[in-house]
C-alpha cells in the first residue's frame, strides 16, 4: 500500500502481515490518497469493497458481518463431523476386511470432509488461503474425491467381473477427469488468463453430470439392489447440487441456512455417503448369508460323506456277516449234523449195549446245532426286523418246551412297528429268553409260561411270566450268574430289564421305539 503525496510522489505504508483481510491504517487529518496493489485470485465471482472502521469498532463490525454465517457454520461443522465418523467407519472396515474399496471410499469421504470443513471454516477467516481454496483447491478436492468414488464403485460392485461395460465406462470417466484436472492445474499456475479455466471447470462438471445420469439409468436397468443403493446416493447428490446451483445463479443473499447453496451441496454429499453405508450393510448381510449357506453346504457335504462312509462300512460288515453265517451253515452245520447222525447210528448198532458217552455226543451235537442256528440267525442282515425276531422267538419257545410238562403261551400283537432290529439286539434278547426258559425248566417247578409282547405309549414291552415258585432273592446261587448275564446283556443294548416275584417269576424287557 502506498500514500500518494500532493506532488504525486509515492510513499510505502508498512501494514505488516495481514491474516484476517483487514488492513491496519493510521490516517492523519486532511485528505489522503491511498494506492493499493492487489494480487487477485482466479475466481469467477469476485467483489472488491472498502470500508473505514475504527479500531475499537472492528470486533463489533466482524460480529455483524459474520452473524448471517453462524447457522451455516453450525450446519457445516455438524455435517463435517458426520463425514468424519463415516471415514472412521470405512477405515475400520478396511482394517478388518482388507478390501481396497473401503480405502477408496475413505479417500472420497476425506476429500468431501475437507471441502465442507474448509468452506465452513474459511467463511469466517478471509485470508489468502481462502482465495487459494476458492480458486483452485475446492475443485481439486471435488475431482480427486470423484475419482476415488469411481474407483470405490468399480471395486465395491466388482464391475470388472460382473459388469464389464460399466467398468469400462467408469475407467474412461476417471481418465478424462484426470486429464482435465491436470490441464486445469497447468493453466492455473502457468497463465494469467482465467477464461480457459472456466471452460475446463464447466466441462468437468458436465462430464460429472453426464456420467451420474448414465450411471443412474444403467443401475435401474440392471435391477441390481447393491447398485441401486449407490444410484440413489448419486441421485440425491445430483438433486441437492442442482438446488445449490439454482441458488447460486439466482444471486441469493443466503440470509438463512435454507438459502445457502453450500448447505444443499453438503446435504448431497452426506446423502451419498449414507446410501453407501446402507449398501455396505446390505452387501455385508448378503455375504454373511452366503457364507452361512456355504458353511451349511460344506457341513451337509461332510455329513453326507460321513454317512456314506458309515453306510459303506455297515454294508461291508453286513456282507461279512452274511458270508460268515453262510460258511457256518454250509461247513460247520453239515459237520455237526454228521456227528449227530453217526452217533445215532452207533447207538443203533450197539443196541442195548449203547454207551452213555454216545448219548452225550448226540445231545451235545443237538445243542451245538441249535446254538449255531441262533448265531447264524443273529448274524444274517436279512433278519434285521421286528417281525423276524418275534417269529423266531415264537418258534424257538414252542419247540424248546414241546416235549416238557410246561405249557407255552405266546401272545404277540398284530401290526408290529416296522423297525430295524440289528443282529446284536436280536441275539441278546434271544439269549435272555433262552436263559429264562432254562431257569423255568430247571428251577421254577412251573406248569405254564407266558411270553407276552405289548405296545406301550413310547415303545414295546416283552414279559416272560411263569406260574412257578418264584425266586428266592436271598439265595440266588444256583442261577445268579445267569441273572447277572441277562441284566448285563440288556444294559449293553440299552433295554430296560426287571425281574420280580408275581405268582411266579416275572421278567420284563422294555425298549423305546421313538
Polypeptide structure, described:
The relative contact order is 0.04. The protein has 514 residues and is of the alpha+beta class. It starts with a strand and ends with a strand. Strands 4-5-6-8-7 form a five-stranded mixed β-sheet, with helices on one face. α3 (100-122) runs antiparallel to α4 (128-156), α6 packs antiparallel against α7 and α8 runs antiparallel to α9 (261-350). The chain has helices at residues 58-66, 70-97, 100-122, 128-156, 159-162, 164-190, 195-222, 225-249, 261-350, 356-379, 386-400, 423-444, 480-492; strands at residues 2-4, 10-12, 33-35, 407-411, 448-455, 459-466, 496-501, 505-512. β5 (448-455) and β6 (459-466) form a beta hairpin. It has three domains: 1-38, no CATH class; 70-301, Rhopdopsin 7-helix transmembrane proteins (Up-down Bundle), CATH 1.20.1070; 384-514, Heat Shock Protein 90, CATH 3.30.565. The mean pLDDT is 79. The radius of gyration is 51 Å and the shape is rod-shaped. Helices cover 66% and strands 9% of the residues.
Amino acid at each position: 500500500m502506498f500514500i500518494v503525496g500532493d506532488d504525486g510522489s509515492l510513499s510505502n505504508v508498512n501494514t505488516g502481515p495481514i491474516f484476517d483481510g483487514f488492513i491496519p491504517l493510521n490516517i492523519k487529518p486532511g485528505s489522503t490518497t491511498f494506492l493499493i496493489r492487489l494480487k487477485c485470485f482466479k475466481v469467477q465471482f469476485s467483489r472488491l469493497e472498502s470500508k473505514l472502521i475504527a479500531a475499537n469498532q472492528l470486533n463489533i463490525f466482524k460480529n455483524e458481518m459474520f452473524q448471517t454465517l453462524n447457522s451455516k457454520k453450525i450446519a457445516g461443522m455438524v455435517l463435517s463431523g458426520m463425514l468424519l465418523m463415516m471415514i472412521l467407519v470405512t477405515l475400520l472396515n478396511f482394517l478388518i476386511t482388507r478390501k481396497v474399496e473401503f480405502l477408496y471410499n475413505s479417500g472420497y469421504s476425506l476429500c468431501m470432509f475437507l471441502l465442507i470443513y474448509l468452506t465452513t471454516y474459511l467463511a469466517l477467516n478471509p485470508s489468502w488461503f481462502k482465495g487459494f481454496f476458492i480458486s483452485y483447491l475446492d475443485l481439486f478436492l471435488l475431482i480427486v474425491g470423484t475419482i476415488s468414488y469411481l474407483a470405490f464403485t468399480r471395486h465395491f460392485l466388482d464391475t470388472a467381473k460382473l459388469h464389464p461395460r460399466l467398468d469400462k465406462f467408469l475407467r474412461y470417466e476417471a481418465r478424462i477427469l484426470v486429464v482435465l484436472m491436470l490441464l486445469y492445474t497447468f493453466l492455473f499456475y502457468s497463465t494469467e488468463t482465467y477464461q480457459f479455466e472456466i471452460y475446463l471447470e464447466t466441462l468437468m462438471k458436465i462430464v460429472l453430470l453426464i456420467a451420474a445420469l448414465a450411471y443412474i439409468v444403467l443401475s435401474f436397468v440392471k435391477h441390481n439392489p447393491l447398485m441401486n443403493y449407490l444410484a440413489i446416493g448419486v441421485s440425491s447428490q445430483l438433486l441437492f447440487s442442482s438446488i445449490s446451483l439454482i441458488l447460486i445463479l439466482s444471486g441469493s443473499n443466503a440470509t438463512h441456512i435454507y438459502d445457502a447453496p453450500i448447505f444443499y451441496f453438503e446435504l448431497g454429499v452426506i446423502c451419498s455417503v449414507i446410501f453407501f453405508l446402507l449398501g455396505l450393510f446390505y452387501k455385508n448381510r448378503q455375504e454373511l448369508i452366503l457364507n452361512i449357506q456355504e458353511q451349511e453346504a460344506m457341513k451337509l457335504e461332510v455329513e453326507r460323506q460321513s454317512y456314506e462312509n458309515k453306510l459303506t462300512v455297515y454294508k461291508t460288515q453286513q456282507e461279512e456277516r452274511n458270508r460268515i453265517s453262510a460258511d457256518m451253515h454250509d461247513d460247520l452245520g453239515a459237520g455237526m449234523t454228521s456227528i449227530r447222525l453217526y452217533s445215532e447210528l452207533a447207538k443203533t448198532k450197539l443196541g442195548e449195549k449203547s454207551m452213555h458217552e454216545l448219548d452225550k455226543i448226540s445231545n451235545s451235537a443237538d445243542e451245538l446245532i441249535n446254538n449255531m442256528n441262533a448265531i447264524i440267525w443273529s448274524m444274517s442282515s436279512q433278519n434285521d426286523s421286528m417281525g423276524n425276531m418275534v417269529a423266531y422267538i415264537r418258534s424257538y419257545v414252542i419247540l424248546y418246551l414241546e416235549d416238557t410238562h410246561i405249557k407255552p403261551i405266546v401272545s404277540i400283537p398284530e401290526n408290529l412297528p416296522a423297525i430295524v432290529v440289528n443282529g446284536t439286539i436280536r441275539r441278546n434278547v434271544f439269549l435272555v429268553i433262552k436263559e429264562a426258559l432254562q431257569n423255568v425248566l430247571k428251577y421254577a417247578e412251573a406248569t405254564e409260561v407266558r411270553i407276552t409282547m405289548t405296545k406301550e405309549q413310547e415303545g414295546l414291552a416283552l414279559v416272560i411270566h411263569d406260574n412257578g415258585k418264584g425266586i428266592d432273592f436271598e439265595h440266588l446261587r444256583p442261577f445268579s450268574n445267569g441273572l447277572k448275564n441277562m441284566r448285563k446283556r440288556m444294559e449293553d443294548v440299552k433295554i430296560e430289564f426287571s425281574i420280580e416275584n408275581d405268582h411266579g417269576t416275572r421278567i420284563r424287557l422294555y425298549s423305546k421305539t421313538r
